[in-house]
């Protein structure tokens, strides 16, 4: 007799003996069941007990004795090389030992936590993360969700040079403390944690970007500060997203005074002609979609000046990603 089997992707094997109700004690049905994406067929078992065996064949016309490769051959499983397993074990052992010597602490309040480069629950709750609804151009949050993408009045009245801007959180409380420590206290280890949050907040922008460019510092300020916080964040975002980072596509050629305390008009005047694309970098920049990285987005004056220079240098589009942004413009 023949019967059709159901096609399935699961694979298992079981053997049972089921009493044959029709035989009334004359025998039993021995089932050797293998379920696979192949038809099933029932054939006589070839004994005197009246038993019937359910076999698996590739087609109804094949003999019942046909054997399938996977029934007799072992699965081809690739083994992990011993050297790779040793390296993995050594890495885990080193991390465990390091955790015992230097227990992970919150990057804001230094309280004990379970994972390094993270915030504790209390500090996390004090961060005002920027999520939708927000302005699609400036990234400023809206108080009410109207159910569709909208532009803020500021973006309509004074459209920015860049395409879109996104930030992780509002610049106050814990977020401002983290930026201040990174920028002025030489806490470069914070860039890893902040960059990871930026990569998640700017996933939409990173998906459209060809290259990441940090906002550059003037050479004298770089010499005085010894590092560029935007470059540290850009490297972390690049590592998280896989988008390449090229810090030499944009240069700061004008030594400007500090922006802290300046109004929007004063910032725009201060940054006039401050950025330029080097001649040797124009070929690499041409036709690229750029994601510009900065630590804080305040009035957008720095972002506009840098975006204008990049667009003039050959970039197709420029978006902005920052860790924090000032919601109330100065």
Can I get a quick summary?
With 330 residues, the chain is an alpha/beta fold.
Q: What is the helix content? A: 25-40%
Order of helices and strands: EEEEHHHHEHHHEHHEHEHEHE
Neighbour order of strands in the largest sheet: 1-2-4-3
* Radius of gyration, CA atoms, in whole angstroms: 32 Å
Mean pLDDT: 80
Indicate the overall shape: globular
End-to-end Cα distance? 86 Å
Q: Could you name the ranges where pLDDT drops below 50 across 5 or more consecutive residues?
A: 1-72
Largest sheet: 4 strands, mixed
Which class of secondary structure composition applies to the elements? alpha/beta
Count of individual beta strands: 10
Number of contiguous helices: 12
Strand content: 15-25%
List keywords for this structure.
four-stranded mixed sheet, 12 helices, 18% strand, globular, 330 residues, single chain, four-stranded parallel sheet
Present the secondary structure layout:
Elements: E1 12-19, E2 28-35, E3 40-44, E4 52-56, H1 69-72, H2 82-101, H3 121-125, H4 153-157, E5 165-170, H5 174-184, H6 190-201, H7 203-208, E6 211-214, H8 219-225, H9 229-241, E7 251-252, H10 264-270, E8 275-276, H11 282-285, E9 289-297, H12 301-312, E10 317-325
Parallel strand pairs: 2-4, 5-10, 6-9, 9-10
Antiparallel strand pairs: 1-2, 3-4, 7-8
Helix pairs in contact: 6-9
């Amino acid at each position: 007799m023949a019967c059709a089997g159901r096609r399935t992707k699961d694979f298992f094997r079981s053997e049972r003996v089921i009493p044959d109700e029709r035989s009334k004690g004359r025998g039993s049905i021995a089932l050797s069941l293998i379920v696979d994406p192949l038809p099933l067929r029932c054939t006589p078992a070839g004994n005197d007990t009246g038993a019937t065996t359910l076999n698996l064949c590739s087609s109804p016309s094949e003999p019942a004795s046909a054997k399938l490769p996977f029934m007799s051959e072992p699965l081809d499983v690739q083994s992990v090389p011993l050297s790779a397993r040793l390296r993995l074990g050594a890495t885990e052992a080193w991390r465990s030992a390091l955790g015992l010597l230097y227990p992970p602490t919150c990057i804001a309040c230094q309280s004990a936590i379970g994972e390094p480069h993270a915030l504790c629950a209390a500090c996390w709750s004090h961060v005002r993360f920027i999520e939708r609804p927000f302005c699609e151009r400036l990234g400023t949050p809206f108080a009410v969700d109207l159910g569709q993408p909208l532009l803020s009045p500021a973006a309509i009245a004074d459209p920015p040079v860049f395409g879109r801007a996104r930030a992780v959180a509002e610049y106050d409380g814990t977020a401002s403390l983290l930026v201040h420590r990174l920028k002025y206290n030489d806490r470069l280890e914070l860039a890893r944690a902040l960059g990871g949050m930026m990569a998640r907040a700017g996933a939409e922008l990173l998906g459209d970007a060809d290259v990441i460019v940090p906002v550059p510092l003037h050479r004298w300020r770089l010499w005085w500060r010894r590092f560029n916080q935007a470059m540290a964040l850009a490297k972390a975002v690049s590592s998280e997203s896989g988008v390449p980072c090229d810090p030499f596509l944009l240069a700061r050629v004008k030594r400007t005074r500090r922006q802290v305390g300046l109004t929007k008009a004063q910032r725009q005047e201060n940054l006039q002609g401050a950025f330029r694309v080097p001649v040797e970098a124009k070929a690499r920049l041409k036709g690229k979609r750029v994601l510009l990285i900065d630590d804080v987005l305040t009035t957008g004056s720095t972002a506009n000046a840098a975006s204008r220079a990049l667009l003039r240098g050959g970039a197709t589009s420029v978006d902005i990603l920052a860790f924090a942004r000032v919601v109330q413009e100065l």
